[in-house]
Write a structure and sequence with these properties.
heterodimer; A: about 300 residues; alpha/beta; eight-stranded mixed beta sheet; two-stranded antiparallel ribbon; 12 helices; 10 strands; globular; B: about 400 residues; Rossmann fold; seven-stranded mixed beta sheet; six-stranded mixed beta sheet; 13 helices
Chain lengths: ~300, ~400
């Protein structure tokens, strides 16, 4: 089905009364993911922006129209390993088992259990919405925060210039786990995102699937709330966030031979507003080199 | 199927594994740690040989072991795992959540000293340190009791009035690696006792969509805690019921939450928990030969704590000593001592008591050492009424 028809015809399974920030890309992605997955789904959403915004629930009220649990910040993948194994035993492989986790729960304290589940080829789909920090607790640095990011734990001052290290690049780390399916996706490329979630769910019936979503955060990154999609689009177009997939070992890269400079979008974010020309050149260099590596892997 | 019991000589770890196997868990998650490792090795062998039909998940840590069994239990399965010391400490986060989500399961703990100093040997510091994490904790005296309590554990954990996870604790090395005579019941009897598993707790299932554990405000949260405390108190009765029912099927019983030995006419009492109990039975016999009017109180369940029964047993006694294989930092005693003292605190007449600490980091507590402790208790209680100085087994 055409992705527009699919999104038009499928029901929104997320509560209307959630309290995500205006312009939140993660909220939109969660709604789309569940539209693709449908009601025959078990969701886990660990502590983070989405859980904080109430999509698990509050007191006796549910935040989703599918069964949902808030696991611990660091055990989403191991918890789902148990759920998935039981559903395999019960011959209910039709049930979609999905994690929707932030970058802290994925790349930091949840990384060990995620790596373990991927290595064991556990049958579920793990989606990381990467807004480059602990945005729900007040914009603290995470291992996926880009170099130079001003966060509440890497502030800018006389001695501080934001985060001083490069980000951990999760998509390639997960690709090296020999998973059934690994992909990057962006809310700016919705057709691509819907297709990848569809493939990821299919792959999760055979083994482990992982999708890494670039998720602009107006509140934490400091940009106008109407610019989230535009920023996501420019992150892709500047090759800062390349879109690729590894489907059963087959690499496919959305190559972009004429990228726009990263300065076209990072200068619009308050978190990068203190950067010098040299800092921006370093980010451009990192993006170029990452793209070059992905080209080699995909060729 | 053969209804007859099989008599074998096996280790405590093997006993735990066989107890688990007879309970037919859907899923076992395992991570190796001394002295527990051979529990899950034995279960892996049984799966490899087609003797049991459980799914085993080879996790990368104990944190994940507890998380995997949590997920599998929420998905409606019966689960098992085992751990010791640092492994238990690592899994504390999902461990606390297992009980507060009211999910029944059984986890064996081959108890071990906690690091530091760096150690891998016996002690009870690991299990007693997590006594307030909402789990039921039973301590076994011998390998037969380990096997039997794993099976009883599922009956207790899954009881509708309880719905709490159960730790079957037994002294690392002293039982985990000790070979003893054990009667293995037939699968038929185990099936008869446990019945088929029925899931009476929260589940994640698209056929019954619900949010499991959403954010919960304080006006609701306290009710969860109150209900959890009530379930613990219910368990005190169910422990006795399960013990009687077990006796009917298997012909063995343990006395419920506590056991006693030569207690009726005793003036002095030693209190033990775990493998030291066996040694203490011999020490009591010898001390009686020497003229001491001594008896034994064996604490089987640390949680829920059988304070009423303990109070009844100790009421009117002259003095007691509590043998702890752990310490309670800040109290200058062991953990069990404080529990016992709390239980008897509202008796009309205070009983002289002596905290005794030993068996730390794999140290022996011999019959002679217990006899020395009994002599000390006898001497000191003649001249002093109250809490005696802490006695260290050296």
């Amino acid at each position: 089905m055409n992705y527009i028809d699919l999104l038009r015809e499928s029901e929104d399974l997320v509560t209307l009364g959630m309290s995500a920030c205006q312009g939140c890309a993660a909220e939109m992605c969660l709604r789309r993911v569940l539209q693709v997955a449908g009601r025959n789904t078990i969701m886990t959403i660990p502590p983070g922006c989405m859980a904080g915004a109430g999509v698990v629930g509050w007191n006796f009220d549910n935040g989703l129209k599918v069964p949902v649990h808030i696991p611990l910040l660091d055990n989403t993948a191991s918890f789902l390993s148990g759920v998935s194994n039981m559903y395999q035993r019960k011959n209910r492989q039709d049930v979609n088992i999905i994690a929707f986790a932030g970058d802290g729960a994925t790349a930091d304290c949840g990384f060990q259990s995620l790596s373990g589940a991927a290595e064991r080829a556990e049958k579920f789909l793990y989606i990381c919405y990467d807004n480059e920090g602990y945005m729900n607790t007040g914009f603290q640095r995470s291992s996926t925060s880009s170099k130079g990011s001003k966060t509440s734990t890497t502030p800018v001052g006389i001695k501080g210039g934001g985060k001083s290290q490069n980000q951990k690049y999760m998509p390639l780390i997960m690709a090296m786990h020999n998973a059934e399916y690994v992909a990057t996706a962006s809310p700016s490329n919705m057709k691509d995102l819907v297709e990848k979630v569809t493939k990821g769910i299919e792959a999760s019936k055979r083994g482990f699937a992982y999708i890494h979503i670039f998720s602009p955060c107006p509140t934490g990154w400091g940009h106008d709330t109407n610019l989230s999609i535009d920023i996501a689009k420019k992150a892709v177009k500047s090759n800062f966030f390349p879109l690729f997939e590894v489907d059963r070992g087959n690499w496919k890269l959305l190559d972009n031979k004429n990228p726009i400079p990263v300065s076209e979008w990072i200068l619009r974010l308050k978190k990068f507003s203190h950067l010098s020309d040299n800092d921006i050149i370093a980010i451009q260099d990192l993006a170029d080199k990452r793209m070059e590596l992905l080209r080699k892997l995909s060729s | 199927m053969d209804k007859k019991n099989k008599i074998v000589a096996i280790s405590g770890n093997k006993s735990a594994a066989i107890g688990a196997a007879l309970s037919k868990p859907d899923l076992i998650a395992a991570y190796p740690i001394t002295p527990q490792s051979s529990v899950v090795e034995a279960l892996a062998d049984m799966i490899a040989n087609g003797e049991i039909d459980s799914t085993m998940v080879h996790v990368e840590s104990e944190h994940s072991a507890m998380s995997v069994v949590q997920g599998a239990t929420v998905a409606g399965g019966r689960t098992f795992t085992a751990t010791s010391a640092q492994g238990l400490a690592l899994m504390f986060e999902p461990y606390f959540r297992m009980s507060t989500l009211r999910l029944p399961m059984v986890m064996a703990i081959a108890t071990r000293e906690m690091t530091s100093p760096e150690t891998v040997w016996s002690g009870q510091q690991d299990a007693v340190t997590v006594r307030d994490a909402g789990w039921i904790q039973v301590f076994a005296e011998n390998n037969q009791e380990i096997l039997d309590m794993v099976i009883q554990g599922y009956k207790l954990a899954e009881h509708k009035a309880v719905l709490l996870p159960v730790n079957v604790c037994y002294d690392g090395f002293y039982l985990s690696h000790l070979t003893e005579r054990v009667e293995i019941p037939s699968q038929e009897l185990a099936d008869e006792f446990l019945g088929s598993y029925s899931c009476n707790h929260v589940t994640l299932d698209p056929d019954k969509p619900m949010a499991v554990d959403p954010l919960t405000s304080s006006e609701i949260l306290w009710r969860y805690r109150k209900s959890h405390l009530e379930a613990m108190q219910n368990a005190l009765e169910i422990i006795d019921e399960v013990d009687i029912e077990f006796d009917k099927v298997f012909g063995r019983k343990y006395g419920g939450a506590i056991d006693t030995y030569k207690i009726d006419d005793a003036e002095l009492v030693i209190v033990t928990m775990g493998a030291t109990t066996g040694t203490a039975r011999v020490a009591v016999d010898k001390a009686r030969d020497m003229g001491y009017k001594i008896g034994l109180l064996k604490v089987r369940f640390l949680r829920p704590f059988p304070s009423q029964r303990i109070k009844e047993v100790l009421n009117g006694k002259k003095a007691y000593a509590v043998i702890d294989k752990s310490v309670s930092f800040g109290w200058n005693t062991g953990v069990l001592y404080n529990e016992i003292k709390s239980a008897v605190s509202d008796l009309d007449r205070a009983i002289t008591s002596m905290p005794a600490i030993g068996g730390l980091g794999g140290a022996d507590i011999s019959v002679d050492m217990l006899l020395d402790c009994i002599k000390k208790l006898d001497e000191e209680s003649k001249n002093y009424n109250g809490q005696l100085a802490t006695y260290w087994f050296e």
